[in-house]
């Protein structure tokens, strides 16, 4: 069926359309209805249900929640129950761990007053609050297209068509997507959102900022033996198994009913083409500091997600005609603290308040300049400004020296000044990988199935599912370039950086007639977006698959 033969989309009109039911989007929705109960607000979410695609550590700074829902502590249904009781920081070496004295750490690294949570459960709870106020939430529908008006303003989004086969043709169950139109549209897609990417390029929102920077965060959820559980313990490490030139580290959080969230973050500006973030998580768990935690325990969850790491320097212009970017779509994560939920929620609050003022004044489809100028002078800006040099210093000087210099800079910023000014990030992550000939292969141990695992058994725990007969949502722009560069120059790093076993180079046939084929197992995709970030040629683009597809994370 040609485009001109497609049936017209049905259209629905709202005051505000929000893309993404994460902390930023739901906070914005709640705040809009708190301030203007008669306002019509809709949230569209690509996950099969709210929380299905949410993955975070997560230790949450509740300062924004206190502003949004001041009485949340008295809510019997709140999933926010485990306060942080103890902070531990270590520098790891192969067989030992050196504790970092708390007195040397900048005050902002203290987790006093924070809570350990399942962010997916928190989002479900926030969604119930939003719906009780009259917000319409549509899970299972992926926002696939940005709608523009005659003046190049954003007027809403269209959800993706359902029931399209791999051949691109409608099947018997074909359903046209819906147009959701609003006076303002807020994009809360999280890190590396596919519509956010288009908006940034369309409006050149990044022309005055540094390149975006990212990490990949991998997480497992374990049910541990009761004697191994220490509710409220928060532990972070730097160093091993990564080398000094590769940024990243681990987290270990004890909460709930004998639950331990263990995760590993690798900065995606790493250079070694043979590095595998998934395997680094598996290696980390074998360290003497942590391996005993999992003895007698059961791994019950797995997932992975890109995280925004550019901070202050990389935040693009966050407004454009007809809408705004909120949360990690804008890049508000605080890298040293490994925290973004509080800033995501603050951005939802600020954007919602500006929308209410604009609509009350009779405006629509213009730029929300109050939000653009206000975030830097408010809670988000103060949070990101103090840590703006931590990531550049780490990248420039390596872990041992970079973290030390970053700590000194954070201390001086606490006092109101910096000896280093504001450092730049340099090049995007896709340009950091070295050719395979310049890299040393890394020999990872085989998984034992008890403490360490393979990718496919891990993806199984993520409950990832996609409609098999649908177009591949991982688009390779130039297959020839993928063979000539990704394979021949970099030795196929997508097979290693993907945490879900999506990409393979497969040799078919024998002898001179054999050929290599790039296989994309799209049904395995956990929507982490790493391929969209790390491919050395920027040759892979992630787009939203059919709504409801992807991981279905329980309690992550």
SSE blueprint:
Blueprint: E1 11-19, H1 23-35, E2 41-45, E3 59-60, H2 63-68, E4 82-83, E5 86-93, E6 96-99, E7 115-116, H3 119-132, E8 136-139, E9 143-148, E10 154-159, E11 162-164, E12 170-175, E13 179-187, H4 194-203, E14 214-223, E15 233-239, E16 248-255, E17 259-267, H5 277-284, E18 298-308, E19 319-320, E20 323-325, H6 341-360, H7 369-377, H8 379-385, H9 390-414, H10 455-461, E21 474-476, H11 479-487, H12 494-497, E22 503-508, E23 515-520, H13 530-534, E24 540-542
Parallel strand pairs: 1-2, 1-13, 2-8, 5-15, 13-20
Antiparallel strand pairs: 3-7, 4-7, 5-6, 9-10, 10-13, 11-12, 14-17, 14-18, 15-16, 16-17, 19-20, 21-24, 22-23
Descriptive overview:
The chain is an alpha+beta fold and 556 residues long. The chain has three domains: 236 residues, 3-Layer(bba) Sandwich (FAD/NAD(P)-binding domain), CATH 3.50.50.60; 140 residues, D-Amino Acid Oxidase, Chain A, domain 2 (2-Layer Sandwich), CATH 3.30.9; 34 residues, no CATH class. It contains 13 helices and 24 strands. The strands form six sheets. Strands 1, 2, 8, 9, 10, 13, 19 and 20 form an eight-stranded mixed sheet that branches. Strands 6-5-15-16-17-14-18 form a seven-stranded mixed sheet. It has a three-stranded antiparallel sheet with strand order 3-7-4, with no helix packed on it. It starts with 10 loop residues before the first strand and ends in a 14-residue tail after the last strand.
């Amino acid at each position: 069926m040609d485009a001109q033969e497609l049936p017209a989309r049905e259209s629905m009109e709202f005051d505000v359309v929000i893309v993404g039911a994460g902390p930023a989007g739901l906070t914005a929705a709640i705040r809009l209805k708190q301030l203007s109960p008669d306002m019509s607000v809709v949230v569209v979410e690509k996950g099969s249900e709210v929380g299905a695609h949410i993955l975070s550590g997560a230790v949450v700074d509740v300062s924004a929640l206190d502003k949004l829902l001041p009485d949340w502590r008295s809510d019997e249904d709140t999933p926010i129950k485990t306060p942080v009781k103890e902070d531990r920081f270590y520098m790891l070496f192969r067989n030992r761990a050196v504790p970092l004295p708390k007195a040397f750490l900048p005050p902002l690294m203290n987790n006093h007053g924070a809570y350990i949570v399942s962010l997916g459960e928190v989002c479900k709870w926030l969604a119930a609050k939003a719906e009780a106020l009259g917000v319409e939430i549509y899970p299972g529908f992926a926002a696939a297209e940005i709608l523009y008006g005659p003046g190049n303003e954003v007027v809403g989004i269209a959800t993706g068509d359902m029931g399209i086969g791999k051949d691109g043709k409608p099947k018997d169950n074909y359903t046209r997507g819906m147009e959701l139109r609003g006076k303002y549209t807020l994009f809360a897609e999280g890190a590396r959102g596919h519509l956010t990417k288009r908006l940034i390029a369309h409006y050149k929102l990044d022309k005055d900022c540094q390149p975006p920077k990212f990490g990949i965060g991998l997480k497992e959820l374990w049910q541990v033996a009761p004697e191994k559980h220490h509710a409220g313990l928060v532990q972070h490490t730097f160093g091993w198994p990564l080398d000094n030139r590769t940024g990243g580290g681990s987290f270990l959080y004890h909460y709930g009913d004998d639950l331990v969230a263990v995760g590993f973050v690798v900065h995606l500006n790493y250079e070694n083409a043979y590095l595998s973030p998934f395997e680094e998580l598996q290696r980390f768990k074998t360290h003497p500091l942590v391996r005993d935690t999992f003895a007698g325990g059961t791994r019950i969850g797995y997932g992975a997600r890109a995280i925004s790491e550019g901070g202050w320097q990389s935040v693009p212009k966050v407004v454009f005609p007809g809408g705004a970017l909120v949360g990690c779509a804008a890049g508000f994560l605080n890298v040293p603290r490994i925290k973004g939920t509080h800033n995501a929620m603050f951005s939802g609050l600020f954007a919602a308040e500006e929308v209410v003022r604009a609509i009350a004044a009779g405006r629509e489809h213009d730029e929300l300049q109050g939000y653009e100028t206000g975030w830097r002078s408010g809670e988000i800006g103060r949070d990101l400004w103090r840590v703006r040099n931590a990531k550049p210093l780490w990248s420039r000087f390596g872990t041992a020296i970079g973290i030390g210099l970053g700590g000194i800079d954070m201390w001086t910023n606490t006092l109101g000044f910096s000896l280093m000014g504001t450092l730049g990030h340099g090049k995007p992550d896709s340009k950091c990988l070295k050719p395979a000939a310049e890299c040393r292969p890394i020999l990872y141990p085989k998984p034992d199935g008890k403490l360490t695992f393979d990718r496919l058994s891990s993806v199984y725990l993520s409950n990832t599912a996609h409609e098999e007969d649908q177009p591949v949502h991982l688009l390779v722009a130039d297959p020839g370039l993928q063979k000539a560069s990704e394979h021949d120059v970099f030795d196929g790093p997508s097979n290693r950086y993907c945490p879900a076993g999506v990409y393979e180079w497969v040799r078919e046939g024998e002898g001179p007639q054999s050929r290599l084929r790039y296989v994309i197992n799209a049904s395995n995709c956990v929507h982490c977006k790493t391929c969209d970030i790390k491919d050395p040629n920027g040759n892979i683009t992630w787009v939203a698959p059919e709504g409801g597809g992807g991981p279905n994370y329980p309690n992550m």
